[in-house]
UniProtKB/TrEMBL annotation:
Presence of the UniProt keyword Cytoplasm in the record: no
Membrane topology: Multi-pass membrane protein
Keywords for the protein's UniProt record, in alphabetical order: Cell membrane, Membrane, Transmembrane, Transmembrane helix
Subcellular location field: Cell membrane
Pfam family for this entry, one: LysE
Location, primary (coarse class): membrane
A molecular-function term among this protein's GO annotations: amino acid transmembrane transporter activity
Organism whose genome encodes this protein: Pseudacidovorax intermedius
GO cellular component term, pick one: plasma membrane
Coiled coil (UniProt feature): none
Transmembrane segments: 6-29, 41-65, 71-89, 121-142, 154-179
Protein name per its UniProtKB record: Threonine/homoserine/homoserine lactone efflux protein
Length: 215
């Protein structure tokens, strides 16, 4: 493991990176606005589970194949892009759900939590940029001379993911709090979900037109 100073730098960098809004954040915020903090937390847990797949894959070298194989990257890129576009379109098609505010949590038409978890998991797993991120970021804090570098990589990745979970839960809590304050402002809530849907859709299109990493 890195020394205390490098470990603190790793944790701080990870927290700052996770505070930056991305497709995962907008997926969490969209569900928290629509169905409350519980849906947002479940979305965060699904995304965290997806990150665990990337961490383990990177630790055993699978993500390195994606990083160096244009074909593997292209397949995962197009599948992930298509899924993100689909998620974004779905969010744009149901903006009226936010009008119900907190009542949506008890609505029989509310999206099942299991589906929200699965959506968060797939949103993360099908994004090759997440795999490449772990390959680029975590090794900077792994000593090549370590007895078990793969094990150190795995531990650091899980630490990053653990810290990221609490940041994601914070995003869910903030979005749910805003929904409670705006539960009478239906127009504002509809535009909030439209904005989240457009951002997710944009991330999908950006992923679709991204280039494979240089070898």
């Amino acid at each position: 493991m890195p020394d205390l100073l490098h470990l603190l730098a790793f944790v701080l960098a990870g927290l700052l990176l996770n505070l930056t809004p991305g497709v995962d954040v907008f997926y969490i915020v969209g569900h928290a606005l629509r169905q409350g903090w519980r849906a947002g937390v479940v979305a965060a847990l699904g995304i965290t589970a997806g990150c665990c797949v990337h961490i383990v894959a990177a630790a055993v070298g699978v993500s390195a194949i994606v990083a160096t194989s244009a074909a593997a990257f292209a397949v995962l890129k197009w599948v992930g892009a298509a899924y993100l576009v689909w998620i974004g379109v779905q969010m744009l098609r149901r903006p009226g759900a936010l009008q119900a505010g907190l009542a949506a949590q008890q609505s029989p038409q509310a999206e099942p939590l299991a589906r929200i978890f699965r959506g968060g998991f797939l949103t993360n797993v099908l994004n090759p940029k997440v795999a490449l991120f772990f390959l680029a970021f975590v090794p900077q804090f792994v000593d090549p001379a370590a007895a078990h570098p793969a094990g150190v990589f795995l531990l650091l990745g899980l630490l990053f993911n653990f810290n990221a979970l609490w940041v994601c839960i914070g995003w869910a809590a903030l979005a749910a709090w805003l929904a409670r304050r705006l539960d009478r402002a239906g127009t504002a809530l509809r535009w909030a979900e439209r904005a989240a849907g457009l951002m997710v859709l944009g991330f999908g299109l950006k992923l679709a037109f991204s280039d494979a990493p240089s070898r």
